[in-house]
Amino acid sequence: MDLKGKNCLVTGGGRGIGRAIALQLAEYGANVAVTYSRSADAANETVTEIETLGARGMALQADATNFAKAEEVINTLTEEWGSIDVLVNNAGIAQDNLILRMSEENWDAVLDTNLKSVFNYCKAATKPMMRARGGSVINIGSVVGISGNAGQSNYAASKAGMIGFTKSYAKELASRNIRANVVAPGYILTEMTEKLSENVLEAIKTETPLGRAGNPDEVSNVVAFLASDLSSYITGEVIRVDGGMAM
Ligand code: NDP
Q1: Cβ(64) to ligand 1 under 6 A?
Q2: For the chain, which domains are there?
Q3: Sorting pLDDT into bands at 50, 70 and 90, what band is 185?
Q4: Where is the active site (predicted)?
Q5: Tell me, what's the ipTM?
Q6: CA separation (Å) from 169 to 164, 230, 231?
Q7: How, if at all, do strands 238-241 and 178-185 pair?
């Protein structure tokens, strides 16, 4: 896979799945900027690794819920590197609770971080991608956005909303050669899932035909493919990376 010359942005790219995505894009030759909200050290370490791979890297502090910040990030990237070719909306949080116990704050925080952020970065990146006559947007969803999950109504709604947004965006921008797809992981071993109890992890294994949780590289493999020209005829698609869980 060859991503040489492509300028990429991964929101929340300093840790977890985002970090695996950033490093894999760089391994294939892309320049990669990552954003973070709190984890500056992790983001800077990721950039050091990107640069070790011979690519250009950049870490930018930007709360993904903030539209003005998204515009600032895209402007910085296009001014410094000339274009944005690949946008990966990865930043996300979970604040799980049964609906009777879920607070308005839980709802707003998860919808703002997981869904409004996608609007923020897609809107800000569209003009530069149109000027460059093409681009690839990859939104990191979740299988629960397809299947739903008790205790995750806010998270599932944010990821289901992302699918509707992505398909609409893909239809609007297809004539400009801008593609948009969703990668929907199942259970992937990161800090987000390491809080799960042994019982829950055992249940996940039982419910997953491949019999195990996934790792971040298994998600970034698909993201790299969607970022590349190998996927040039794929848009508006949702690709599950879930060991068969939601089939
Ligand atoms: P982690 O908790 O390990 O990492 C989350 C990342 O998002 C961090 O880099 C974090 O940066 C960033 N982030 C969170 N809030 C914001 C914000 N307001 N602004 C900017 N960045 C932010 O999670 P994962 O790596 O596991 O998850 C990554 C994506 O994959 C998420 O969208 C998640 O919903 C999705 N996903 C994960 C699954 C899993 O099993 N792990 C399954 C399905 C989907 P910082 O620390 O600086 O805030």
Answers
A1: yes
A2: 7-188+218-235 (3.40.50.720)
A3: very high
A4: 155
A5: 0.99
A6: 9, 21, 17
A7: parallel
